[in-house]
């Protein structure tokens, strides 16, 4: 653990305290200089160690977000950037992943399948075997694995729409590598919302996986429509892969 002490340890902020970073954090300053930050102000971005730098807007946002993890609120009142800025202005570009075609499920494919074949196609895209065993998938966003199970196969084959089927094969990846996670109530039940961003040919979409926090069962997954992407970012801000490290 690094302790603050050397160099400048104050800035113009009166309310913020310096934030130290346990594992040195590769960042960049306002002049575009690469620096390895060990201590900085989460309020204004003044870097205390190494001295003589101010974080650029991207890294300021990442450090400020780190300080909000575990708090309750909405993305806007926690001061987070809109989801559309993640991987664009805030965070590494690699936050937004372009899925290969074989992981996308197209209407002309799923609409043409007979019910039994559709069920098999959805099952294998969820990574489930013919046996009825569920799968427990570890997520960095939570202290328990999320359980993917055959009830989801029934659910999505009944839905038969693009929002539920197009990225069904990315369910495991969104659980394993979410961009963000929030816990919130949905119809009186506490839910974990795991979100990832995927680049499709004509748009970048947010994929949402929901799990019931009492049972850890995955309840659903689907692509959010543009107008509600940020609305889902409320509750307890549980995790952000793009935030500065502890
Ligand atoms: Zn400051």
Describe this structure in words.
By secondary structure, the protein is an alpha+beta fold. Helix content is 19%, strand content 32%. The chain has six helices and 13 strands. It has helices at residues 57-68, 107-110, 115-125, 151-159, 162-165, 171-176, and strands at 18-28, 34-41, 46-49, 53-54, 72-74, 96-97, 135-137, 146-148, 180-186, 189-200, 203-212, 218-223, 234-240. Strands 5, 6, 9, 10, 11, 12 and 13 form a seven-stranded mixed β-sheet that branches. β3 (46-49) and β4 (53-54) form a beta hairpin. The longest helix is centred in the first third of the chain and has 12 residues, at 57-68. The protein is elongated. The termini are close together. Mean pLDDT is 92; it is low at 1-6. It binds zinc ion. Residues 11, 13, 16, 41, 43-44, 46 line the site of zinc ion. The site of zinc ion (ZN) has 7 residues, from loops.
